[in-house]
Design goal:
single chain, 105 residues, mainly alpha, 26% helix, 4% strand
């Protein structure tokens, strides 16, 4: 008869393994990574509990928000030719007299 042994029902992923899979899955949040691991939806992803111990700097920058600009109270571009709309066209099959293949319209 075999001796009784304790079975680990839940194991925690190491810090490096957690961040490795976080980066491999395009900085996916850890709740979603745990869901993928439980369901076995990603080949090679170990069935461990993934937790973050600190916020990754790239993720912190991505989650930060900027303040919005105040709307202008008056229209400042009243002068003629203050604002120009242009389009670049080319390359043209036939060169211009100066040998150019692109034009601004």
């Amino acid at each position: 008869m075999m001796a009784s042994s304790t079975i680990c029902l839940l194991s925690k992923a190491s810090k490096t393994k957690s961040w490795l899979w976080h980066r491999r899955l395009s900085h996916l949040n850890f709740g979603a990574i745990n869901h993928l691991a439980r369901q076995g939806l990603v080949r090679g992803l170990p069935k461990l509990k993934f937790e973050k111990d600190h916020l990754y700097s790239a993720c912190a920058m991505d989650k930060s928000t900027k303040k919005t600009h105040k709307p202008k109270s008056e229209d400042t571009n009243q002068e003629k030719l203050y604002l120009l709309h242009m389009d670049l066209c080319g390359p043209m099959r036939v060169e211009s007299v100066n040998g150019k293949k692109y034009i601004l319209v």
